[in-house]
Automatic annotation (TrEMBL):
A single GO cellular-component term on record: cytoplasm
Keywords from the named record: Cytoplasm, Methyltransferase, Ribonucleoprotein, Ribosomal protein, S-adenosyl-L-methionine, Transferase
EC id: 2.1.1.-
Domain of life the protein comes from: Bacteria
Protein name, entry field: Ribosomal protein L11 methyltransferase
GO aspect biological process, one term: methylation
UniProt organism field: Neolewinella litorea
NCBIfam families, per database record: PRK00517.2-2 (NF001785)
Organism lineage string: Bacteria, Pseudomonadati, Bacteroidota, Saprospiria, Saprospirales
Catalyses which reaction(s): L-lysyl-[protein] + 3 S-adenosyl-L-methionine = N(6),N(6),N(6)-trimethyl-L-lysyl-[protein] + 3 S-adenosyl-L-homocysteine + 3 H(+)
UniProt function note: Methylates ribosomal protein L11.
Alphabetical list of InterPro entries matching this protein: Ribosomal_L11_MeTrfase_PrmA, Ribosomal_PrmA_MeTrfase, SAM-dependent_MTases_sf
Alphabetized Pfam families for the sequence: PrmA
Family from the record: Belongs to the methyltransferase superfamily. PrmA family.
């Protein structure tokens, strides 16, 4: 059985709270007008309350909870998932959304419940950076999507002309989801790895790494990421909260990366670095 945690908060806090709750292990989320509904297994109720109470010490919101019976989770997810538009160039939609013939690129992405739908801001910025990169003639022949989730960034990179695209995620469901979404878009990714960065076979260094993860993973694996990039290569990093930007900047600068561009959206940051 699941428990639904109703969190009432200011709009600008919704995605920030979702990010923290996702990192803590909550299963799925529905964004509502009042804030967010967060779902987690009921047998860990004390743990989830502790997580929420710790967040309340840092952010202002109210919450309540109730047990929910088993239900059609696909319907729950579909009711809360909206298409993502990146300007007039890209539409990311689920298979049950209508197509749009007016956009330059369209991806059909069906995320599973485990990944939630709360990170539209980071997805948007990473897609924007990626499209601009190729539009200005970026090399990007070999690409690694680190923490691929649904596979959207890997699939988009391949669509935009990358010769080789590998993807890795520690979650088995993410790997399955990436495989399914690649097939749905008639895209052949070169290697999809279940595991950590260390599990990705070492070949020639990549021209481009896409890492839409979170602060802790970026800090822990920055040195390893550097070793996977050739000199002069590019790294796009996101999943970074506004308040964590300086720490990420300092860390990657100390590793020999140079900031090329920063983007901000709804309390989140996406950063473009060049490896020296």
């Amino acid at each position: 059985m699941y428990t639904a945690y109703r969190i009432e908060c200011a709009p600008e806090l919704t995605e920030i709270l979702i990010a923290h709750l996702a990192d803590a292990g909550f299963d799925s989320f529905l964004e509502e007008t009042y804030g967010v509904l967060a779902y987690a297994l009921s047998n860990d109720h004390a743990r989830w309350v502790k997580v929420i109470e710790e967040l309340k010490a840092e952010y202002t919101f109210n919450y309540s909870h109730e047990a929910v019976e088993e239900r059609n989770w696909n319907e729950v997810w579909e009711s809360g998932f909206a298409p993502i538009r990146v300007g007039d160039r890209l539409l990311i939609r689920a298979s049950f959304h209508p197509a749009d013939p007016l956009v330059s690129h369209e991806l059909v992405i069906d995320p599973r419940m485990a990944f939630g739908t709360g990170h539209h801001a980071t997805t948007y910025m990473m897609c924007e950076l990626l499209m601009d990169y190729y539009a200005r003639g970026g090399v990007g022949e070999s690409v690694l999507d680190y923490g691929c989730g649904t596979g959207v960034l890997a699939i988009l990179a391949k669509r935009l002309g990358a010769r080789r695209v590998d993807a890795v995620d520690i979650e088995p469901a993410a790997v399955e989801n990436t495989i399914d979404n690649a097939a749905a878009n008639d895209v052949q990714l070169d290697e999809i790895v279940e595991g950590t960065l260390a599990d990705v076979p070492e070949r020639q260094p990549y021209d481009l790494v896409l890492a839409n993860i979170n602060r802790n993973v970026l800090l822990d694996t920055g040195e390893a990421l550097k070793l996977r990039l050739r000199s002069g290569a590019t790294a796009f990093l996101s999943g970074i909260l506004e308040q964590d930007e300086d720490r990420i900047l300092q860390h990657f600068s100390s590793l020999g990366f140079t900031l090329q561009r920063r983007e901000g959206r709804e309390g989140w940051r996406a950063l473009e670095f060049k490896r020296e």
